[in-house]
Design goal:
- There is one protein chain.
- The protein is of the alpha+beta class.
- It has two domains: 236 residues, Rossmann fold (3-Layer(aba) Sandwich); 126 residues, OB fold (Dihydrolipoamide Acetyltransferase, E2P) (Beta Barrel), CATH 2.40.50.
- Helix content is 24%, strand content 34%.
- A six-stranded mixed beta sheet has the order 7-8-9-3-10-11, sandwiched between helices. Strands 2-1-4-5-6 form a five-stranded antiparallel beta sheet, covered by helices on one side.
Length: 372
């Protein structure tokens, strides 16, 4: 196994930063996710680790071995890094059988026929595709082709797996199955794996650690739970979670030793541990609350406000309810709707323990500082 260290990585195309001073520490045996929207720099990071892209600045280390250094003008070739890549389109050879596809990396390494046969069969069995070895790719389903691509990567016994959106060509049902398969495979092999995706569900369900990128910059690096519960800024808060976090702008004020956020439709009383906000001379904030933390009732409760149902979306085991109050839209997720209909009025309040506060100017999560 190999840990991967990235230091001050910079890659530019003209005047545009594809990567802007990226620092990452990827542990031995970790399933590490690079997550973000299209064009954020995640694939550029992956290809830099592979040696397919040379950065303008920075270094990349595999364990204690330097593999890339812009200052030293040194970039170890991909074939010298003992990595294995799995791509979005699988890149398996259509004219070869499954056996020959899996065997190809070993043939390049000049392994003996006996060793090649043994390793191919062992790898195929581990992925339950041994009965497919004489078939060609056109005779396989999408899920089977994905396993062949994984087998070809595994058979090399690499130090690092690099995966570039390997599940994006699968249908939704098969993607769920494939995610679980990849997790089981990673647990079994224990090989350091760096996985690129734009799908937050993939990232949250699979990764030990997630790095969220945006416009070539790292927004947050943390565990899936920490990123969901303690997003560092508005970008992360909105990018993670479906439906996205509700955002409500307000003015901060202090009365009778208590802090309030004037949201227009109500003065929201802030928890006592946020009295320190007054010391920061902040005025305009954005309150964030996830839809599942918006509480609804047909009866008025303490601190609740009246809202009108605009849309009800049945999602199977839960409902997404779009509420309108004072011209603002708030989304609530609930298991029960109690025969509610569009146009009905009800009362809503927030789970005080789950609110987030963002500085309107910097977009940073102020509440994050107080929760640590």
């Amino acid at each position: 196994m190999t840990n991967v260290k990235i230091r001050n990585l910079v890659k530019k195309y003209g005047d545009v930063y594809a990567l802007n001073k990226i620092d990452l520490d990827i542990k031995d045996g970790e399933l590490f996710i690079l997550l973000g929207p299209s064009g954020c720099g995640k694939s550029t990071t992956l290809f830099s680790i592979a040696g397919l892209i040379k950065p303008e600045e920075g270094e990349i280390w595999f364990g204690d071995k330097l593999v890339t250094s812009a200052d030293k003008k040194y970039c170890k070739r991909p074939q010298e890094r003992n990595i294995a890549m799995v791509f979005q389109d699988y890149a398996i050879y259509p004219h070869m059988t499954v056996f020959k596809n899996i065997a190809f990396p070993l043939q390049v390494q000049n392994k003996s026929k006996e060793e090649i046969k043994k390793k191919v069969i062992e790898t195929a069995k581990s992925l339950e595709i041994e009965e497919l070895l004489e078939r060609k790719p056109k005779q396989l389903s999408g899920g089977q082709r994905q396993r062949v691509a994984l087998a070809r990567a595994i058979v090399r016994e690499p130090n690092v797996f690099l995966m570039d959106e390997p599940l994006s060509n699968l249908d939704a049902k098969l993607r769920v199955f494939a995610r679980a398969e990849l997790k089981r495979l990673h647990k079994k092999l224990g090989i350091t794996t760096i996985y690129v995706t734009h799908d937050q569900i993939e990232a949250m369900s699979m990764g030990n650690t997630i790095a969220i990128l945006n416009e070539g910059k790292l927004e947050q690096v943390d565990t899936p739970n920490k990123i969901y519960d303690f997003p560092k800024n508005i970008f992360v808060a909105r990018f993670i979670g479906s439906p996205p976090m509700n955002m409500l702008e307000g003015d901060l004020k202090k009365e009778n030793g208590k802090m309030y956020l004037n949201l227009g439709f109500m003065d929201y009383l802030l928890p006592n541990n946020l009295l320190k906000l007054n010391d920061k001379n902040l005025k305009e904030l954005i309150l964030g609350i996830r839809p599942e933390d918006v509480l609804i009732s047909t009866e008025q409760l303490n601190n609740s406000v009246k809202a009108t149902i605009d849309i009800i979306e049945p999602m199977g085991r839960e409902f997404e309810i779009h509420l309108v109050l004072d011209g603002k839209l708030i989304i609530c997720v609930t298991r029960k709707i109690e025969n509610l209909k569009i146009g009905n009025e009800l009362y809503l309040t927030f789970n005080d323990k789950k609110i987030h506060l963002f500085d309107k100017e910097t977009k940073e999560n102020i509440y994050y500082l107080f929760k640590q």
